[in-house]
């Protein structure tokens, strides 16, 4: 903004001096990240304090992605200007026209997607300009865990299956057994399946825990292998067959050893008779 005034140097000479002051518009956004629910509508809050009264035709508002500088929503000359809008935001954004003159340039974002997560910059220009950036995180609040147990035919191992149906990324899955050992990893839409293979032990409990740190929510499911768990028929026959084979091997080994011992004794007896 430039301020003009005159100073009289003499009765006949007037010198005009120009003082230019750089005034930045005060643009405000939330300091904390905004958390939006997947599939719902959310508002990215942004406001400014006008230096003086202004006409709507003097106002320009630009929302863009902070990292790529792609246009999310633009407004100038008293109307929306969406020719350069990023395609994935088409028909999903709007300002609040009746609140623009009061300094509210917040952005309404409809049907939030996982890909919408990130940093957004709000640029405002009225006589002078200002900008601010804010972070939006996307979360889901629909989580379900189903459980299943499947036995190997060998009957020595068991599958513990935990299937988590979730509706957003940034969920952490912990699958742990009674030894309190688990695995953590991050997932995206929409489902996660974790299979734990363990040695078959009765009275063992396995649990699966899903946590959503953005919303402070958790979902958990557990499954217990009880004493009454029985082997499948095929596994039982396989165990019996292995036992029979082992027994036959032991009998054959005993017979061979007995024959070898008998032959050794006969050779020793024959040697003694030859000496005498």
UniProtKB/TrEMBL annotation:
Where can this protein be found?
Membrane
Query: Which Pfam families does its entry note?
Result: V-set
Q: Where are the transmembrane segments?
A: 156-175, 234-256
Q: Which SMART domains does the UniProt entry name for this protein?
A: IG
GO terms (molecular function) for this protein are: signaling receptor binding
An annotated GO cellular component: external side of plasma membrane
Q: Which Gene3D superfamilies does its entry note?
A: Immunoglobulins
- Does the UniProt entry include the keyword Nucleotidyltransferase? no
Organism domain of life: Eukaryota
InterPro entries, per the entry: Ig-like_dom (IPR007110), Ig-like_dom_sf (IPR036179), Ig-like_fold (IPR013783), Ig_sub (IPR003599), Ig_V-set (IPR013106), IgSF_BTN/MOG (IPR050504)
Q: What is its main location?
A: membrane
| The entry's keywords | Immunoglobulin domain, Membrane, Transmembrane, Transmembrane helix
Tell me one GO biological process term: T cell receptor signaling pathway
Q: Does the keyword rRNA processing apply?
A: no
In this chain the Ig-like domain maps to 39-139
Would you tell me the protein name for this molecule?
A: CD276 molecule
Organism in which the protein naturally occurs: Sinocyclocheilus rhinocerous
């Amino acid at each position: 903004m430039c301020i003009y005034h005159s100073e009289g140097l003499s009765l006949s000479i007037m010198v005009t001096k120009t003082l230019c002051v750089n005034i930045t518009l005060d643009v405000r956004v939330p300091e904390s990240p905004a958390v939006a629910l997947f599939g719902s509508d959310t508002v990215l809050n942004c406001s400014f304090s006008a230096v003086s009264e202004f006409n709507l035709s003097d106002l320009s508002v630009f929302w863009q992605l902070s990292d790529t500088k792609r246009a999310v929503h633009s407004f100038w000359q008293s109307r929306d200007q969406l020719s350069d809008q990023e395609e994935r935001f088409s028909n999903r954004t709007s300002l609040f026209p009746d609140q623009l003159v009061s300094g509210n340039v917040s952005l309404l974002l409809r049907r939030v997607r996982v890909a919408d997560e990130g940093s957004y910059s709000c640029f405002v220009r009225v006589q002078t300009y200002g900008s601010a950036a804010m972070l939006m995180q996307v979360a889901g609040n629909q989580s379900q865990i189903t459980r299943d147990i499947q036995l190997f035919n060998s009957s020595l191992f068991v599958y513990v299956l935990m299937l988590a149906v979730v509706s957003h990324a940034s969920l952490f899955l912990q699958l742990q057994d009674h030894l309190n050992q688990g695995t953590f990893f991050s997932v995206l839409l929409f489902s996660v399946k974790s299979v734990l293979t363990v040695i078959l032990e009765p009275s063992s409990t396995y649990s699966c825990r899903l946590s959503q740190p953005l919303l402070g929510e958790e979902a958990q499911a557990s499954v217990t292998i009880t004493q009454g768990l029985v082997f499948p028929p095929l596994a039982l026959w396989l165990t019996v067959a292995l036992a029979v084979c082992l027994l036959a091997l032991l009998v054959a080994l005993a017979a061979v050893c007995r024959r070898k011992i008998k032959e050794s004794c006969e050779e020793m007896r024959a040697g003694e008779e030859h000496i005498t």
